[in-house]
Design goal:
113 residues; 2 helices; single chain; mainly alpha; elongated
Amino acid sequence: MKKSAMKIPTSPLKAFTVLFCCQALLTLPTVAQAYIGPGAGLSLLGALWALLVAMGAALVFVCAWPIRRLMRRLRADKATEDPALVDGDADMAPFDAESPPAVQRTEHTEPRQ
């Protein structure tokens, strides 16, 4: 009786390598049997661009958060030294609930038609 040409690997590493290579060969793409038009490609690129911009903006905001917090803390420390800088601007008057608004409504005296 003749022995088979393919030997079964005995070590686990060799078995894993053979199985990995077989799986890689089976998952290789073959000839595409479909056509993707330019509209679908542009839509895909637009969605990818939006995803990248959203992830970049999220990363910027997460990285900027500690800096903004530090700036607010420093501004609060300055405000305790000088009460006029509470809002960050010495020229701004604090909001007073009893003061009249800057723009007042006027009623029309003539009837509307």
